[in-house]
Specification:
Blueprint lengths: L15 E10 L5 E6 L9 E6 L8 E5 L2 E3 L2 E6 L4 E6 L8 E7 L7 E9 L7 E3 L3 E5 L3 E8 L8 E5 L5 E3 L3 E2 L5 E7 L4 E7 L7 E7 L2 E10 L19 E3 L2 E3 L6
Length: about 260
């Protein structure tokens, strides 16, 4: 099966640009960045913009939420207080400063800054093979998270974006009638997540977290498959044949 590598760094929340996150990515890949925001900004416009220089006031808007422009897609998830930015078919010319931002009409926008470098020969720090998984109610899903050699000693977690509930390697949590188990394999530099007893409420965005870095994974939960029933058997009266010296007698089997 062909592997689709996703190179992602996760935001804790959008704020007023007090820090910058640096991302090093490979040409031809794609990146998905979930940007969290406060509930008070649900009705505000969300955007992704770019600038050759590190100045938000001079950035060019590439796409607004729920739109696709060229190789950029921005999707808002107001029920989870986040929007995602996906950049596809990355090119070396994409190197530069970026911001995921929320427009504020009555004041300065709130935003998070990135500096993205697209260069050949770079290995992903944290990645997943599948960024979207689907399971059925009551069923099981498995996710494999991969990390680079320099992160073997870091804590490995599976975290739900909505409430930041995290499950840590080596522990089992059976809350809410679902179980989450994580096992780490240092030799292959990967850890596996298994969620069993799935519920509809388990659906949403999660993250494979290694230290402070995180890769988002979207979990969908569909209705359980209808139970199959065997056709009921119809009992028919049985007969047996007896023989006597006077002839053949065929009485009911049960009388």
């Amino acid at each position: 099966m062909e592997r689709f590598w996703i190179f992602i760094f996760f935001l804790s929340s959008i704020r007023n640009g007090s820090s910058r996150r640096d991302l090093s990515l490979q040409p031809g890949g794609y990146i998905t960045i979930p940007c969290h925001y406060d509930k008070q900004y649900i009705q505000h416009k969300k955007l992704w913009c770019f600038s050759w220089i590190s100045a938000y006031n001079y950035c060019t808007i590439q796409a607004y939420a729920n739109n696709t422009a060229d190789r950029v897609t921005v999707t808002d998830y107001p029920d989870q207080n986040l929007f995602t930015v996906t950049m596809r078919n990355l090119k070396t010319g994409d190197t530069g400063s970026y911001w995921c931002a929320v427009e504020i009409e009555e004041g300065p926008d709130v935003y998070e800054q990135f500096y993205i470098t697209v260069k050949s020969g770079l290995d992903p720090v944290v990645s997943v093979v599948e960024s979207s998984v689907e399971g059925q109610e009551g069923g099981v899903v498995r996710i494999q998270c991969l990390y680079s050699a320099g992160y073997q000693s870091e804590q490995k977690q599976w975290c739900r974006s909505k409430d930041q509930r995290c499950y840590t390697v080596g522990r089992i949590n059976t809350s809410q009638n679902s179980a989450v188990q994580i096992s780490d394999d240092g030799r292959s530099r990967s850890f596996s997540v298994e969620m069993s007893g799935l519920k509809k409420s388990d659906a949403g965005w999660y993250g494979c977290r290694v230290g402070k870095l995180e890769v988002p994974v979207l979990l969908s939960v569909s209705d359980a498959a209808p139970a199959t029933t065997m056709p009921s058997a119809t009992m028919t009266p049985a007969t047996m044949t007896l023989y006597s010296s006077s002839g053949m007698i065929t009485p009911p089997f049960n009388k």
